[in-house]
Design a protein that fits this description.
This protein is an alpha/beta fold and 221 residues long. The protein contains 8 helices and 6 strands. Helix 1 crosses helix 8 (195-220). Bound molecules: adenosine-5'-triphosphate and magnesium ion (MG).
């Protein structure tokens, strides 16, 4: 199959540590496994977390190989986008002026958020700001990350988003030691030792793939 389009998925948040890099790697891994030519643009140059993750992955010889490059600015990352089927922009912690740039350039913008109000409030504020600045609402994809065992908490978080006019994906990411371990070992969330956890991550990734397809359909038609 010949791909003639470049897709861009941005992963941004107002708060740090919500799982941006973890989700970026999951998405990259799943598309790379489907033979897409993928690159993660790591904009977090002070930490270089995805870049370091790739080094661990390469050292262990884990396949598929996933290209990661560090970029100082969004525009520098966008310059190389044309070489890839998919560029995943792993944004730095805290939103900056670069966040709007990422949002405007992205076909799909992933907003990972925890379930606590401390996480939800800034996420919704960021979404409102982006929409006000002209980012189409249907490009925003909320993903619940670090989800605990409480169904009630999850439901409350869904209601909170709904009241604000947004919806999260059906599948979230549970907080699991094995996921943290996978990251530490240069693996993606579908590459843990546990089939059930790999399956959960895979279902989330599939929802993101479907969402990208949905927002891209009008152009592809
Ligand atoms: N679902 C999860 N279960 C357990 N650990 C997780 C999960 N998601 C992320 N982590 C761990 O939490 C830490 C922060 O995750 P990650 O680096 O993906 O967040 P981030 O939003 O990219 O952070 P930053 O804002 O610093 O860039 C990492 O050590 C990661 O392995
Ligand atoms: Mg990160």
């Amino acid at each position: 199959m010949v791909f003639i389009m470049t897709f861009i998925i941005g992963v941004v948040s107002q708060k740090g540590g919500v799982g941006k890099s973890t989700l970026s790697r999951l998405i990259a891994r799943e598309y790379a496994a489907a033979n897409w030519n993928v690159k993660i643009a790591d904009l977090d140059i002070s930490q270089g977390t995805s870049f370091n993750w790739q080094s661990r992955r390469l050292a262990r010889g884990i396949l598929p190989e996933i290209a990661v490059e560090r970029f100082g600015t969004v525009d520098q990352a966008l310059k190389v986008a044309g070489h890839y089927n998919l560029l995943i922009i792993d944004a730095p912690p805290h939103s900056t002026s670069g966040t709007l740039r990422v949002a405007k350039a992205s076909n799909l913008l992933i907003l990972p958020t925890g379930l606590a109000l401390d996480d939800l409030e800034p996420t919704v504020l960021l979404a409102h700001e982006l929409v006000k600045s002209g980012v189409p609402k249907d490009r925003l994809v909320f993903v619940f990350t670090r989800v605990g065992d409480s169904e009630a908490e999850l439901l409350e978080a869904r209601n909170y988003l709904a009241k604000a006019g947004y919806a999260a994906l059906q599948h979230g990411l549970p907080e699991k030691v094995a996921y943290r371990r996978a990251n530490d070992e240069g693996k993606a969330l579908t590459e843990t030792r546990f089939a059930s956890l790999n399956g959960q991550a895979d279902r989330l990734a599939q929802e993101i793939v479907d969402a990208l397809q949905q927002v891209s359909e009008p152009e592809a038609a």
